[in-house]
Amino acid sequence: MGLTSVADSTSGSNISGTFGFFSHYRLLDVGARYGEAAWDWASRAEVLSGGAVESVWSADAEHPFEMRVVYRWKAPNILDATTSVIAQKDLLGFEVFLASYFDGFAKSLVYVNACPETEGKAAFLEAKRAGGQWQMFPRDAQAAELVQDGRWQRPPNPVEWKIMPSLAGPLAMRRDAKTGLVGLVMARPADCFAVSTPFSGEDHRSIYFSLFGRDLNAGQKATARSRLVIARGLSDREAIATYQAYLKET
Q1: What is the signed CA dihedral for 41, 42, 48, 52, rounded to 10 degrees?
Q2: If 165 and its partner were Cys, which of 93, 112, 214, 222 is the partner (CB 3.0–4.6 Å)?
Q3: Is residue 116 part of a domain?
């Protein structure tokens, strides 16, 4: 379930939800949902030289692909995750739904290309209750079509997403008013085709990244990189600058 039981060393307060940060959840493509979640797919993990941790899920009858994830602390407040898959058969529109659950952090915002609250300029848009419980921000029209191809109607727990403004980049933020802490989740634009979240204050306190969203041929490998940053008192402008620095780095 990714990284769980995470505490802020300054305040001592817990900041991660039960299902963790960078938790690999639904595994989807155009024609199938593979198991209920990667949470239920047997895996093994080991500590690598330098302190990173690699989790490995081996292909089996229910999962026609191998998945590997390397977690590495770049700094005390920066966690990187590299997710790699190797297809064992042709996979169309393949998606790994990457979840991050917070403890607290009620306010949820997503970086959109034409924010209605800033005269159409790129900015963070809060996911408000009026937008619906489950809000999806696609990369573009093609990504929105992928979201709506029927994959989210497959049980258990089907979801009806409200399609929101398109992304300025895969960047989302949760704010905790009590501690002043900010949680940023980000990825490279080519690695993530949609970002989703429930409205601010909803009990899940989650951010989801839809990774890959592409066809994979049998034997083909694909890799997606994601980063979590926890900071205190970060402004929207500073959050965007943090993301832009990440893109230059990767």
Answers
A1: 30
A2: 112
A3: yes
pLDDT score recorded for residue 102: 98
Structure tokens at 237: 């402008």
CA atoms within 13 A on the CB side of 144: 11
List the structure tokens of 36.
């209920």
Rounded mean pLDDT of 84-95? 98
Average pLDDT of every residue of the chain: 96
Vertex 32, ends 65 and 145: CA angle to 5°? 110
| Domain assignment of residue 93, given as a range | 23-249
Instruction: Please choose, from the candidates 152, 126, 151, the residue with its C-alpha nearest in 3D space to the C-alpha of residue 137.
Output: 126
Given a cut of 90, is residue 119 above it in pLDDT? no
Count other C-beta atoms under 10 Å from residue 96's C-beta: 24
In the chain, how many domains are there?
A: 1
- Has residue 218 got a pLDDT over 90? yes
Residue 1 lies in a domain: no
Answer yes or no: is 5 within a domain: no
Which CATH number do you get for residue 83? 2.70.98
187 inside domain: yes
- 21 secondary structure, DSSP code: B
Instruction: Inform me whether the pLDDT recorded for 114 exceeds 90.
Output: no
Whether residue 120 has pLDDT greater than 90: no
